[in-house]
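2.7 Reproducibility. Because tokenized structures are sensitive to small changes in the input, we list the exact sequence used for XRE family transcriptional regulator, including any N-terminal residues retained from the expression construct. No trimming or masking was applied before prediction.
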Amino acid sequence: MAKDRPVYMGPRLRRLRRELGLTQADMAADLEISASYVALLERNQRPLTADMLLRLARTYKMDMSELAGDGGAEQTARLQAVLKDPMFADIDLPVLATGDVAVNYPGITEALLRLHTAYREEQLALADQGAERPEAAEAPDPVAESRRFLGARRNSFPLLDDAGEKLAAEAEAAGGLSAGGLAAWLKAKHNLRVRRLPTEVMAGSMRRLDRHRDAVLLDDALDGASTAFQLALQIAYLEMRRDFEALLKDGQFAGESGRRLTRRALASYAAAAILMPYGAFAKAAEARRYDVEALARQFGTSFEQTAHRLTTLQKPGQERVPFFFLRVDQAGNVSKRLDSAGFPFARHGGSCPLWSVHHAFERPREVLTQWLELPDGQRFFSIARTVTAGGGGWGVPKIERAIALCCAAEHAHKLIYAAGESAGEPTPIGVTCRLCHRSQCMARSAPPIGRDMLPEDFRRTHTPFGFADG
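Resulting structure tokens (single pass, no recycling of outputs):
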């Protein structure tokens, strides 16, 4: 019979000791062992025995499952995900060896993960530099900085997912994840009551924390999904500040605006993690075959909130279908772009008029499906639909936008939208006209970079621009 693998928990033990404000000598005295043995445990030079786990749990009144953790499974999954990067394709990296490194050398593993994240962030920064406005390349762009931060991490933050699940469990016990249940949790945990006030009284705010009156004030024009989301957002700001700061610490921001914009994105991620807890939501997504509307009804969220959450299901070891998310207005301006798979059009894509996301305004609230193909042959499956922000009363301003949710063609069979639908002939689209080299595209608005225009003295093509083939 195979023996159980020894458990090494040095970093977790060190973190526990520091959180308790203890020295190695203090912990050794509490556990009735030597300080040198504590040092060996923290350096992973000794495994943590079952007896030692019991001592820790009894001494510090902790749940043993919290102490035992996952035996390095999460770190192993994260490292394996990073080592799938094409830059490592020519290196033999056995799965067992990766697991040994993650378990036995957690410090080195964390260092590698941080280096890879920093590398990807720098790669995205180089791709952004002067891509659209070379003359403004030196000026800080907070939106680009925030997108780069999220993109480098594939819009996945397990720390927030775990914290969100714990808060969701507490809210469920207090009354559920509806607006009423979240309000009950705020009252019980922070002594904050929730008040809904008329739009004119809120003076342009949809949510405001009033510390003087111990209240969370909400615009009464908000619908049910928006009300619950704003309450979850307030809970995230109250409960996860340290988590936000820990994540932002590794970011690269030229100014405070980029940092604040990213912090806001993390808070929205956390609010979604509360309303749609990772484990339950991921399971439901598979069961319902990624039916966005059905999931929205199950979790009491909006179509856009649900589609947004689907892009975050990339927790190491528990990954689901990787999606790309895009939101545009009727003028074609991209107001949100999220990516969980490193899609090629995640940086500057979205302006190709052949993509159905730009035609969704012609058929409001209807889900449009489309097979897509980029110039390099990569194929994708896309759904698009309009969503409304604002409104809630006569004369209250509102705006219509369209969102697209897109996955690689290889995952399309998992989506209910592709059931019984033949891939057929995909629509040829480009990342942007400046980066697309399709010579026969009638919808082109600009010639591609690096191609010479042809003279029109003797011949004029049907396409807006004629350019050399080579």
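The mean pLDDT is 85.
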